[in-house]
Structures are given as C-alpha cells and as structure tokens.
Amino acid sequence: MNRRNKSACAAVLMGLSCLAAGSAQADITVGVIISATGPAASVGVTQQRTVPLLPKEIGGERVNYIVLDDASDTTTTVKQAKKLISDDKVDVLLGPSLTPNSLALIDQMAETGTPMISLAGSGAIVEPVDDKRRWVFKTPQSDGQMARAIIQHMTSQGIRSVGFISFNDAYGEGWAASFRSLAEQVGIKIVASERYQRTDTSVTGQTLKLISANPDAVFIAASGTPAVLPQATLVERGFRKPIYQTHGVANNDFLRVGGKNVEGTLLPGGPVLVAEQLPDSHPAKAPSLEFIRLYEALPNAGMRSTFAAYLWDASLILKAAVPEALKTAKPGAPAFRAALRDAIEGVKDVVATNGVYSMSASDHLGLDSRSRVMIRIENGGWRLVP
Amino acid sequence: MGPIMDLTIFGFLVQDGLTTGAVYILLAVSLVMVFTVTRIVLVPQGEFVAFATLTLAGLERGDAPGLAWLLVAAGVLAFVMDLSAARRRGSRRGIAAAAVLFLAVPAVLAAVALYGIGASTPLAAKIAVTCAMVVALGPILYRVAFQPMAAASPLYLLIAAIALHFVLVGAGLYLFGPEGVRTSPLLDGSTEVLSMPVSVQTLLILAASLGLNLALFAFFGFTLQGKALRATAVNRRGAELVGVSADYAGQLTFALAAAIGALSGVLIGPVTTIYYDSGFLLGLKGFVGAIIGGLAAYPAAAVGALLVGLLEAFSSFWASAYKEVIVFTLIVPVLLWRSLAHVAVEEDHD
Amino acid sequence: MTDRLRGPLPWLIVAALLPLVLGPYHVALFGYIFIAALVTLGIVLLTGVTGLISFGQAAFVGIGAYTTAYLTTTLAMSPWLTLPVAVVLTAGAAAVIGAVTLRMSGHFLAIASLAWGISIYFLVGNLPYFGGFNGLSGIPALTLFGIDLRGETAMYYVILSFLAASIWAVLNLLDSRVGRAIRSIRHGAALAESVGADPARLKIAVFVIAAALAALAGWLYAHHQRFVNPTPFGIHMGIEYLFMAVIGGVSSVWGAVIGALVVTLMKQALEDLLPSLLGQSGNFEIVVFGVLMLLVLQHARQGLWPWLIERTGVRRAPSRVAADPMPAIRAKPEPGEAILRIDRVRKSFGGLAAVDELSFRAEAGRVLGLLGPNGAGKSTMFNLISGVLPVSSGEIRFLDRRIDRERSRVLAAQGMARTFQHVKLVPSMTVLENAALGAHLRGRHGLLRAALRLDRAEEARLLAEAAYQLERVGLFAQRDELAGNLPLGQQRILEIARALASDPVLLLLDEPAAGLRYKEKQALARLLMRLRDDGVTVLLVEHDMDFILGIADRLVVMHYGRKLADGAPREVQANADVQLAYLGAD
C-alpha cells in the first residue's frame, strides 16, 4: 500500500464520518414521507403543500418537521424511513402517501418501535392489528369503507350489475379487491373487470368490453385526471348509465379536463370535500371549514384536497395524543415513542375533517360511517348527495 | 363470461388501432429520419408530442406557457456553447446564425406566447405559436445534448438520448404540473365509413400521418437535399467535404423531428389526455414500430407502427391487464425475424 | 496474486471499517449501494466487456427478489436455500431470453431488453400469488448459525462479502482463458471464431452471469428491504443501473462500484439539497441526473474510473512470465505433404464468379503465396479457405478432411490459424494477453474454474506459451503494453504470434504487408523466413509482388477469379501473362 493510497483511504473515511455526524435535535421531531413526484405526484403534492400548516407546537413542546419525497418509489421510502429513524431520531412518522410504500415500512416501524400514521388507502396497512401493525395507524378511510358507500348507493339505485375498470397498479388493485368482495355480499354482479394505464392514450378496447357486457353502471377506480379518459370514452360511445368514480378524482383538474363528460359522476368522499354543504350537525363540518380556510389561502394551492386533509387529520390526532405521551416520557427517546404509540391508540372522538377518529387496540383507523359521504358532480362542481 | 367480439366491436377496435397506430407512425417515421441522419435513437421524440399538447392546452386556458422559459434558457445555453466552440476554433463564422437561431427566435416566440396570446386569439394562432416553439426547441436540443458527442457510437448516443429524456420529463413536471390536459377538438363531428361512425378527428390523424410519411419518403428518397442529409449518416467526414455540415444536418433533422412531434401533439390532444410523462411510452411504441421497419425504411416503419397500434387495441379488449406484456412480448419474435433477415454485418465497436 | 490484491485490499479494509464511523442510516445506504454495484458489475461484463446493451437488468433483480420473497413467506423456506433457487431460476430465465434475443445485434437487443423489462413489471404486478402491485411483506431477515443478521450493520457485512466475492470472481474470470475470449467478442465475432471460441455461446454465458449477479442483488435486496413490490424492478431502474455503469466506467470492474456509489450518494445529496434550494415541488433530481449523464457522455465517455486512473497515474507492475513453450498438441505432417487441397472451387455472388474453378494445393513446411492484383478474388479465396464463406461448388480439403462447409471455429480446432487484413486485436488487453488468446484451444478450463481461480496452473502454461511466441516474433519486451498502443507493423506481428500460439499446422496470412512502411515490411519478411526455416506452413495472400517474391517457395497467381500461373517465384515472375496482368492492372 503506497502512501498516496493510504492518504486517499484516510480522506474517504474522514469524509464519510462527516456524513454521519450532525443531526439536529428538536423537541418533538416528526418525519413526513410523501410522494410529491413520480406517478403519484398529484396526490403527494397536495400533502407537501399542507406541511407549513401543521402545528408548530403541541403540548408546550416545539415540533420540528422533516419532509422527504419518496418519488413514489418503495426502495426510497424504506431508505428515507431508516434515515429519519436512525439519524433524525424522529418520534413519529407521518406518511407515506401510497399503499405499497406504507406496507414496506411495517416491519421497520415495529423493529425500531416508532409509531407511524400512514396516509394511504388500503385497509391492509392496519388490518389486522398484529404484533407488527401495533405501531401503524392511518387516517384515510379504507378502500373497503369507501367501497361500502358506493355499494350502498348502488343498492339504493337498484343497480344489479357493474362494469369495473381500474388503474393497472396498486391503487386499482386495492379497489378491485375490496369492491369485488363487497359486491358479492350484496349480490351485485361484476360483469367486466378491466385495467388500464395512467398514461394510456386510448382505452377504447376496455370501454367496448364494458359496454358490450351491458352493466347497469360502470365503476372507475382511478385517481386524478387520468380517471377522465375511460369516462370520456364511455360517454363518446353513448354510454348513458350511472358512472361511479373514487375519491381519488376529487380535485379541480379532474373537473377541468373532464368537462361535460363527467357531469353526473357519483363518488364517495371525505366530508371535507363538500364541507359547506354539510348539515351543521355533522361533526366534520367545523374542522373541515377551518382546514379549507387555511389550505385554500396557500399560494397556488387551488381547491381543497382530501389527500391533504389526511395529513391534516394525522396532525389533529398527534395534537390529541402528544400531551398524553408527554406525561410519561420526554421526546427523543424510545420510551416517548412507546408512550406516543399508546396515546395514539387511546385517542377517542378526535373530530377531524374526515370524520371522527376513535382508535382502539383492534382498530388503528377509528373512523365510522360519518367519515364518508356520497357526492355527485353537478354543473362542474361537487354536490353532496343527501 | 367474455363478451362476444361482433363485427361492430371489431370495426371499432380496428378504428382505434388505426388511430393510435397513426400517431405511432408519426413518431416512427420521425425516429427513422433522425436515426438515418444522426444515428441517434431519439427517445425524447415523445416529449415533443407531450410538450406541444400541454403548451397548447395552457394557451387555451390562458396560462403563461412554461415552455417559453425552457426555450429561452436552453437557447442561451446553446448559444454559449457555440460561442465557446467558436473561441476554441478561433473563428467567428456561424455566430450570427447561432444568435438568430438560439437567441432571437426563442426570444420572439417566448414574447409572443407570453404577451401576444389572449382569450380572443383564434385557435389556429395558438396552434401556430405552439408548433413554432416546439420546432425551435429541436435544433437547440441537438446543439446542447448531441452535437458535442456526435461522433460517438450509436449506443452512447442512445444513452444520451435517454438522459435527455430524463431532463425533459423532469422539466415537464415542473413546467406543466402532474395533471393531464385535453385540448379542444380541431374538427367536430363524425362521418360514416363502411357504415361505421368514424370521428373526423380520427380521419384527420390518419390523413396527416400518411401524408407526412409519403412526404418524408419522397424527400429522402428523391431530393438532392434529402440524399445529402442521409449521406451525413453514412460518412460524416465525407459529407462535410462536399459541403454538408453534420452539425447543420443534425439541427435541421431535429427541427423536422420536433415539427412532426408538435403536429402529433396537436392532433392527439383532443382525443386523449396527455401528461408531462406521456411521451415515453408513446415514443417507445413508435420506436418499436420503427425497429420493426429496421430503423431504415419509411413504409416499413409505418407498417410496424400500425401493427403496434392494432395489437394494442385488440389486447386492451381481450386482456387489458396484460396489454403491455402482450405488446412487448409479441414484438420479440418480430425483432428476432428482423435481426435475422438483416444480414449480419461484422460490428466493430469503438 | 499479491500483485493483484495490493490494489483492492486497502479499499476492502476501508469498506469493512465503514460501519464504525457511519451512522446506521448511512450503513444501510451503503448496503443499497453495494447491492446496486452487484447489478452494475453484471452490466460491466455485459456492456463494457462484451458490447451488449441491456435495459432489462432490473427485471432480473426482480426475479431474484421475488423468488426468495415468495419462497420465504409462503413456504417458509430458509433464505439460504432460496439463494441458489433464485440464482438458478434467474439464470435459467436469462438463458432462455438470451437464446432468443442475443442473436439480435445493437439496437434490436436494446429494444428487446426494454420489452422484457416492461413485461416482467406488469406480469408480476398482475399475479396475485406475488401480492400484485402491493407487493409481499414480512420477508424474514437473514440468520447465520442462529445469529440474527437483522439490522443495518450485520446486513452490510453480508452484502459486502457477497460483493467482494463477486468482484473477485469477475476479476478472475476476465483474467483467464475464457475471459480473454469474452473480451475479444466486441472486437468482432470473426476474431473469437478464429481462435476457436464460440462467440454465440460466450455471449449467452456472459448474459447469464450478469443475470445471476442481478439475482444475487435481488436476493440481498429482498432481505435488506424485507419487502418487495414491482416498482423497484421496473424499466426506470433498469435504465438507472445502466447509467450507473456508464458514469462509473462501463469497461472496468471498479467502474461498477464507483458508478453505484456516485449515483446513489449524489441522488441522496440532491434529495436533501434541492428542495431547500429551490423550495418547489418538482422532480429536479431527475433533471440533474440527466444533465450529469450528458456531461459524462460528452466529456468523459469512458466513465469516471478510467478518468480517475489517468489522474492518479497508477501503473501496473511488469508481468513476471517466463517464455516456455507448451508441448505440441498435434503431430506435424511430413514436409512436402499436401495439407491443403483446393479442387475446382467456385464462389459466385449473385451470378458473378469471384472465384472460378480454382485448384491448387499447399505443401507442409513451405510458404505458398497467393498473388493477384486488386479484385482478382484472392480475398474471397482466403475467406473460403478460412471458413468465413461457404463455397458455391468444388471441394476444399485440409489434412484430408473436407472443410468447405465448416465454420472458422472448427478449422481453428483442426490446426488452421489466421491473421486479418484489417488487424483485429483486443486493444484493451496487453500484448501478452492477445498472444495468449491464440492459445485458447490449448486450455480446457471453463468459466467456473476460472472464476474460482482453479485454473492457475493451466493459465501459467498458456501465458508461458504466449510469452514464448512473443519471444519468437520479437515482441517479448512489449508484452505488458496495451495492444492498442502498438504501431501497425507490430500489431501485425502480434497477430502472427497469436496465430502461432495455437500450434497451427497451417498459418493463413491475409495481406500482412498492407499499410506497412518499408522497415516494417523488412522486419515482417525476416520473421516469415525464420518461421519457414522452423518448418511452419504458411499460405500468404498478397498483392505486393516484391514482398512476396523473396519469401514464397511457390506462387499461385489469380486474375479475375481464375488461376493465371502456378509455380516457383522465378518462373511465375517471368510468365508473360502475369506480367501483363500486373502491368495492365497497375
């Protein structure tokens, strides 16, 4: 080993040790992982915008947020969670935005004893609450709960057969599974089940198959503006029966791109989407209006977003749980994380934009039927279906 | 429980396949053209399409078009590169032309797009501005990304093309946001062909793509300039000796490719939703069509592209979850056949 | 061996010490970097060494990862048992894909790799047993003799060990008989064929090795990440792995590590830096990544590693090989015996006869010159003899075996060795290695023994033989230079040394004097005369009459595909027809 080589090695070692050093220690550290870029960007961007609204202080302690974008990629999510937990010593993790990314973190959360409040849809993230999922909570209504709202509405309309089309990805897959099992229970037949891609330029083949199966209604499980294409194609092909979408379409871009093609669309959603139209008796009305006021005042934020509201609700849960946890331990230590986990599991009647959260040892979502409403698109706007 | 494929459905699927295929034809012939002149597989061809649609939609909505800023910034970079190349060469030849092409044209177009377009501007003018901006971007991208490495092997050029695609997609997300757009239809209504309703827009796409294909075939096959452009691909040094600069040929080809991309974008904007990242798969499928045509012949590339479009239409009917699997798996035998039919020439890498 | 280890060993020690100075997150990060380095190591073999391009390596990582994920979660198999399963399964898939797609060249292969990269992503995503797009969770951590290898540091050492072992094996492989054949492929299949190697099989072998490395990476990934879903194995990752290799330096093993390191750390830094710098949402990381890639391609196309090596001025030590010939592998024919018989051979291209009813023979221990003006058909005749082209009619016999339909590879095994009109050497190999390439058929050890370094005794003999041939042609002193750096005259002589290393019965030389300067021609002529005195049989194709007259024992002159004259040089020179043909042609 010559001298040059030796000193090069030493320099590398020193450089790396600098990398390792230096992580700030705030009072309460909250890690936030969202998907602000990549295929799920339209979901994550709204959550990224919401971060500045989150409370800066809870229970008299300062709260420090560290926000990372996982670009919708699971490898990155796991890396970032490792970083947040080991380097930044976060007390709790909010996110990720997506189901696969949330599932990818379950083991790590359990092994490091860090509570996490996921912002993703699938019920599989918190069900069943086993040894690993003890540490995992979530705020969005599960696919199953939302699907149940759709099924109830379909039943009330006398719909007996449905044509189903969804994204060929985790989002579509989650909906396909929960919708299929619920539909079977009430005797609604799925007469066609199709997939398409977010960036497809044509879904004529799938649409023809849906129409030729002659269903009473079509249900499109997709999110954002890509959900327009199947509906537009159906309408162009003369399909005039009810079309259902998921709450994933609830943004103004969907209305803009969809135009008259999406008039009359039915979708389930969090109460926050139509907060102004809720009866005053609805518990979610006041917190929703408050959130909307803050969110829509942000520069470039545009319309309220249910996805943004999930992050907001997660912070409301923290607001309720952190003071409890502070009673037994100080932030930045495993004891505090454990106490926080217990406190989150113990929150009761947290009134939030998506309904009322009451967690328990067997329910790490804690939402009931007040958490969703049916919405119809009328005159280019969202209307509450009573 | 699979629904029966009757004649109507068959007809609609063929129509759908032809429409999609027609767009792939546009991309495929453009890829063939760029490859025959520069040996570059222009992966970012799809970005020209997406940027055109997104810019047009932005103009229709009254948003400030982000493309204008990209155009100006890239133009300045291209000019600086030309300037420093001129200094190294010790000659100021071509600087004036570069100033016009890389500075003046983008500045004028950006000014028009930012300040000259109002709600009352006719659609045709918006389309013209959109196309002009995308076309102007073409030579600039060639200058910045490919000209410094034009002599590299095709495989390195392919990797560079993918790198450029990354840059453009990232810029696209920033400039246009994650959501999709649709533009207003150029022609409304439908007509009957063989007692099937066919939208006029579809016919327009088909006509444009076939017309362009023939035009390129004629240009490269029969005109002196077309032959000169092709000669640069075969022998850069030789072409330069007879007065065809490889740099000029590359920039001209990229302008043509961008024009074809812009045209495709304007044509498909009304029939589908386009996103900042729609370009990749569009380009890839055009590429598949071009490869089926051996990356050399325009009519063969067009047939290949139509084949991809039809395959896609039918597989999305039969097994939509596996559409991409089917499209990309079935091309392998075609590729194999092409590569075996293609006389094995001894390949020397650098 | 100590020579080879002096370079990497300190770095291995640095790598082993890293967890002592790094926090757990960076240890985990380096785990991911080394996993990526395993994949790029395969790409170096595939793209840099063999000249094949693949965007589909991530799909092979996926097959490896999913195999172990599925077997350990649903069937509760031990991860150590799933490792061979994952590797064998992936290698099998690669062998099938390779058999179909490796026949394609250049862009066809690249697009095919995109195709399978995309297909596998959607295929896995739609298969419910693999958890669909939501993936499989609950993959167990590795254990070793009851020790739980959960946690960043333990996994880091596991990954590092596999990476170090893989690099060792790949370095061994490249520095071996098969390795030299593999390195020759990208310089033309004809070169590999001429020394008796089978380029098609070697390509598939390299492809399978690259896939196996990817599978190993996938297996490690699954147990490091403890979760798999289709996105990390999609086409964008396939592209990223290729980019890592190109940035690091695609033609060097260390480039693979450097590339994975630089790209991952840079992405990490950008993730931390860009949002605070720009305060905007957007995928700036991909923009910076793309720009960096373009800069590397424009300014350091060979990648960072060769660039670094150049800057640090590291030089390799002289090889300590002694010249020592191997025992002959075949009995030499008696001098004067006709070993090559050309009988009424005809070759036509689309009705045009390039060789027309030509007959002659070559005798052992003599130098036969095949002479003719440009366009006389002598190159075609050379290609017919050397198995590059099949004859249209007629017969060619070599050592009493009919060879007019045999491939050059088979001819090499029978004792025919050749040089090329346009010199074909492996410029990135040393002179010694290039000569040793010629002895390909005199060794037997294959990929596995080479990778495990069980081929050293044979390897030493092959190198000694190569050194002997270099000494014979006068290039021994230049043995450690890169062949690409030699002047043309020496390159031609090196080709002869390479041919001699195969212990040939017949040496075919294709215009060896073309493009040489006067002094170089003289040196070549002296060498050929020395070889003749050693009893080597030579068939020399040439159009330079003056050069050939002093060397050949007999001349066959061709004109318009036919034989014009056949006899001793003096007679032929005096032949009026020959004079007319030459003077008329010139």
UniProtKB/TrEMBL annotation, chain C:
Keywords: ATP-binding, Cell membrane, Membrane, Nucleotide-binding, Transmembrane, Transmembrane helix, Transport. Residues 340-585 form the ABC transporter domain. Gene3D superfamilies: P-loop containing nucleotide triphosphate hydrolases (3.40.50.300). It is found in: Cell membrane. It is a multi-pass membrane protein. One of its GO terms (molecular function) is ATP binding. The chain crosses the membrane at residues 9-27, 33-53, 58-77, 83-102, 109-130, 154-174, 204-222, 242-265, 277-297. It comes from the Bacteria. This is Branched-chain amino acid ABC transporter ATP-binding protein/permease. The lineage of its organism: Bacteria, Pseudomonadati, Pseudomonadota, Alphaproteobacteria, Rhodospirillales.
